[in-house]
Inverse folding.
């Protein structure tokens, strides 16, 4: 049912089986004025190593251990036709309009043949040359020559702003068919180890050990890598062959200029080109831009001749970048304009092209895709501006997109194209936010524009301030919030990380706590997927703290689940009192975690003298019913430290009593009454006036305050003690613990000990060393059953003693325990529970 227009069940009424109420027909004219259905959040589920990651753009991504049935199949390689299709899609778009003539590769035949020979022998090559020397054109020609050298063909990659790990994942995605699967490090290395291809890597920015890591991971691949001289060189023990690329000589520069103009140069133009060759060091890019200047000059000359011939006069702006000489010719550009021609070339382009250049300058040299230009520029035909810029060599291809050519950025900034940079960046941010969040835009398309989006964030984040109105949201925060989930779903995780860090900084500057918590959560998820557990823990704890301050329940639950997974991977234990995702107040994780019932006194760390002892206990809801498993031990663990001691003593007493009874039952199978068979050997019991084993010295009178202990009476027919008419047991407080391993219970007037030990050396009890002649103590009660079960005494109100050392009521009956009696008495007195025959508090 529609969540926005629900039926009667919205108000607590179930559907009564009647037909639903009909809605009034919608007027097609006013259809857009009504309430639209909210756009559903686009969630993507992918596998990263051993994790199942659900990219949730609302509350934050959720991560869990991947179930076996969700594990993807082993990746398989693309076919030759599929690789060719992917290679065509990875090329930069063709500018609209007439096709531009492709200039031949001049003066590079020797380098071309050398590169092909080295690659055919399986050697990797590093092609080094300055920006604008024609490295990309040479790599294109080499790629065509090596199409059939390797079983996996030729793989074209871009190294612009890519790390070694990014390039490994790019190589994996170019060869293997593995949708929504990002393998872990070991699996990635195993898969790329099986790739045998010629890898053409352009505009690389890594060197040294990082480049060695890339080469070592792909021993079956032959690389041809292009880089500028300012990139770090390979290590000394690297097996890369170095090939240096320089500029053209004078004749080569003139030939390239003639091919660019499309005609033979005049003498003045040839002399001008010679001076340009000396100034530009023969870089091909400068001759291509000079050829564009000469073509514009020819077009202007043709326009003036047409005006004079047909008598059509046209007003020429006063600030025109050119001046007519005799009315039929234009002077050649100066040498300075030829060496830095960007401003002069841009002044002769259309308004849409100049606006595109302003956007490119504002976002760090990234040229927006031609599909975005109409919306950014405000002209429906603005996509043709890319053809103008490419024809003037003001832009150059980088991977699947275009950037400003080398040196153009600085030249345009000097010409004033950087004025209004903030307004241009804000306009680009608004457009990309709308576009990246549109449901029809796939994550792959967003990843293709990653550099433009990230460059926009780089410009806007330092300019972010707290908004004056709480309803206003920072443009940088909105862009990062929209683009980051798309980068994650498109498996462009280096862009994902950069967007998250930019968004975290922008949200901090803008004071948007909720968005800051989201970015920290995503950074924790990303670190967890990468195996960086310490960073993941720090990011997730920061996110949970921020969301806890905002009372964001769903976000907090997602963060705690991820944090529990971090604790599981790191070998630490999260808060034991809560399950994954359960909200428990004052929850702690790992080192700060405590058991559900607190720390027992026996295992609590020693505290300095004079400081009060603190016992950490588990907080429970008073209205929540206790579970069935939480019995006596559960109630004891929530009490004070004395109760914990009493609980441990009671558990020990139960174990010892069961052992004694079992030994007594199996030592003699005579069915006679045990009380009538008293052996000659005295048994060790608690005497009232001697020092026999297990007995405490007691003064005459049996005062409870002085530690007197009563002797139990004879066992009854059912093997129990204390058959007096008085059913009220009392707990006798004692300052010193008893050594008797078995507790006895009695009621009524205590009787004297059935046996005394005249010897100074006490004899052992039957529970310790059984003798041939059975000696029966009150703790030995053989019955017909193999294991006698003591009958619990009625639970009544215990003694009124409230402290372990205070005076106890002088009742005629007493109860002794094998544990310290002061702890047992205080346990029963302070908790208000009766004492069972096993010594535990009920």
């Amino acid at each position: 049912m529609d969540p926005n227009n629900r039926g009667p069940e919205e108000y607590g009424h179930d559907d009564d089986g009647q037909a639903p109420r009909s809605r009034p027909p919608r007027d097609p004219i006013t259809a857009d004025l009504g309430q639209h259905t909210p756009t559903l959040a686009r969630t993507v589920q992918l596998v990263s190593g051993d994790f199942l990651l659900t990219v949730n753009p609302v509350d934050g991504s959720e991560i869990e251990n991947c179930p076996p049935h969700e594990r993807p199949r082993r990746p398989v390689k693309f076919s030759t036709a599929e690789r060719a299709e992917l290679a065509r899609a990875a090329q930069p778009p063709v500018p609209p309009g007439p096709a531009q003539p492709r200039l031949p590769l001049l003066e590079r035949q020797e380098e071309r043949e050398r590169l092909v020979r080295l690659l055919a022998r399986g050697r990797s090559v590093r092609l080094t040359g300055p920006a604008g020397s024609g490295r990309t054109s040479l790599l294109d020609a080499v790629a065509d020559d090596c199409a059939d050298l390797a079983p996996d063909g030729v793989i074209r990659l871009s190294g612009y702003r890519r790390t070694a790990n990014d390039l490994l994942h790019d190589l994996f995605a170019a060869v293997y068919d593995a949708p929504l699967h990002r393998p872990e490090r070991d699996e990635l290395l195993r898969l790329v180890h099986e790739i045998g291809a010629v890898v053409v890597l352009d505009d690389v920015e890594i060197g040294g050990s990082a480049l060695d890591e890339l080469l070592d991971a792909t021993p079956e691949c032959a690389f041809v890598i292009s880089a500028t001289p300012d990139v770090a060189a390979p290590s000394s023990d690297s097996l890369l062959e170095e090939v240096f690329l320089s500029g053209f000589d004078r004749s080569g520069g003139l030939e390239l200029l003639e091919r660019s103009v499309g005609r033979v140069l005049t003498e003045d133009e040839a002399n001008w080109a010679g001076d340009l060759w000396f100034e530009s060091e023969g870089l091909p890019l400068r001759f291509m831009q000079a050829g564009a200047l000469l073509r514009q000059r020819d077009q202007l000359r043709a326009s003036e001749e047409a005006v004079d011939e047909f008598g059509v006069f046209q007003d020429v702006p006063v600030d025109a970048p050119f001046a007519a000489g005799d009315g039929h010719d234009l002077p050649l550009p100066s040498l300075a304009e030829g060496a830095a021609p960007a401003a002069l070339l841009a002044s002769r382009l259309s308004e849409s092209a100049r606006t595109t250049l302003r956007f490119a300058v504002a976002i760090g040299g990234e040229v927006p895709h031609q599909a975005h230009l109409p919306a950014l520029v405000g002209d429906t035909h603005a996509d043709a501006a890319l053809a103008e810029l490419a024809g003037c060599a003001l832009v150059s291809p980088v991977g699947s997109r275009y950037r400003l050519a080398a040196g153009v950025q600085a030249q345009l900034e000097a010409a004033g194209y950087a004025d209004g940079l903030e307004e241009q960046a804000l306009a680009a941010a608004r457009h990309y936010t709308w576009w990246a969040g549109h449901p029809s835009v796939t994550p792959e398309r967003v990843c293709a524009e990653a550099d433009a989006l990230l460059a926009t964030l780089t410009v806007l984040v330092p300019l972010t301030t707290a908004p004056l109105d709480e309803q206003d949201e920072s443009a940088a925060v909105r862009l990062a919030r929209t683009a980051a989930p798309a980068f994650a779903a498109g498996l462009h995780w280096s862009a994902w990380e950069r967007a998250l860090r930019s968004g975290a900084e922008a949200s901090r500057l803008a004071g948007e706590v909720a968005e800051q918590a989201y970015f920290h959560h995503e950074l924790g998820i990303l670190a967890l997927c990468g195996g960086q557990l310490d960073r993941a823990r720090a990011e997730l704890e920061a996110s949970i703290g921020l969301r806890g301050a905002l009372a964001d329940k769903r976000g907090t639950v997602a963060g705690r689940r991820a944090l529990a997974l971090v604790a599981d991977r790191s070998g630490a234990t999260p808060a034991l009192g809560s399950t994954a995702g359960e909200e428990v107040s004052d929850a702690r994780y790992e080192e700060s975690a405590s058991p559900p019932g607190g720390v027992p006194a026996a295992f609590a760390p020693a505290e300095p003298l004079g400081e009060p002892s603190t016992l950490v206990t588990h907080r429970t809801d008073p209205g929540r019913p206790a579970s069935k498993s939480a019995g006596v031990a559960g109630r004891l663990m929530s009490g004070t430290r004395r109760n914990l001691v009493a609980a441990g003593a009671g558990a020990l007493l139960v174990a010892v009593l069961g052992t004694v009874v079992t030994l007594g039952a199996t030592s003699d199978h005579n069915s006679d009454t045990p009380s009538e068979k008293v052996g000659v050997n005295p048994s060790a019991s608690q005497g009232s006036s001697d020092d026999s084993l297990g007995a405490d010295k007691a003064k005459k009178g049996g005062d409870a305050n002085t530690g007197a202990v009563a002797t139990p009476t004879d066992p009854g027919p059912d093997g129990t003690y204390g058959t007096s008419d008085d059913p009220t047991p009392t707990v006798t407080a004692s300052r010193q613990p008893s050594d008797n391993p078995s507790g006895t219970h009695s009621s009524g007037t205590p009787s004297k000990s059935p046996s005394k030990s005249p010897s100074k050396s006490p004899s052992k009890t039957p529970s310790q060393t059984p003798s041939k002649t059975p000696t029966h103590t009150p703790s030995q009660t053989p019955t017909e059953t193999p294991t006698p079960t003591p009958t619990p005494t009625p639970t009544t109100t215990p003694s009124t003693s409230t402290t372990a050392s205070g005076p106890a009521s002088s009742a005629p009956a007493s109860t002794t325990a094998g544990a310290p009696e002061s702890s047992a008495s205080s346990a029963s007195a302070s908790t208000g529970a009766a004492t069972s025959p096993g010594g535990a508090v009920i």
